[in-house]
Amino acid sequence: MLSKTSNPSGSSVPSRPMAPLTLLTPKQAARYLNLSVSWLAKRRLAGDGPPYVKLGGAVRYAETSLQQWMKSQQRVSTSGS
Fold this sequence. Notes:
It is a single chain. Strands 3-5-4 form a three-stranded antiparallel β-sheet. The protein has a two-stranded antiparallel ribbon with strand order 1-2. The longest helix is centred in the middle third of the chain and has 10 residues, at 37-46. The protein has helices at 26-33, 37-46, 63-72, and strands spanning 3-6, 12-15, 23-24, 53-55, 58-62. The chain contains three helices and five strands, in the order βββααββα. The protein is globular, with a radius of gyration of 18 Å. By secondary structure, the protein is of the alpha+beta class. Helix content is 35%, strand content 22%. A hairpin with a 2-residue loop joins strand 4 (53-55) and strand 5 (58-62).
């Protein structure tokens, strides 16, 4: 069931309950992607790997972000990028 909340204009709008965000450690993310932990670390440094968050000093990957990143990596040809 959708709950109703008030927005700043005072009208009621339905809001959806948020799905829990699953955060994975680099080791779990590497296993999920079938890649190595060191590959993920190198891609973080280069800035072209999957998106991640830092909580304190801990690196975490949102499972939904990994899925979206994998979709963005799909190719139909080996030529070009």
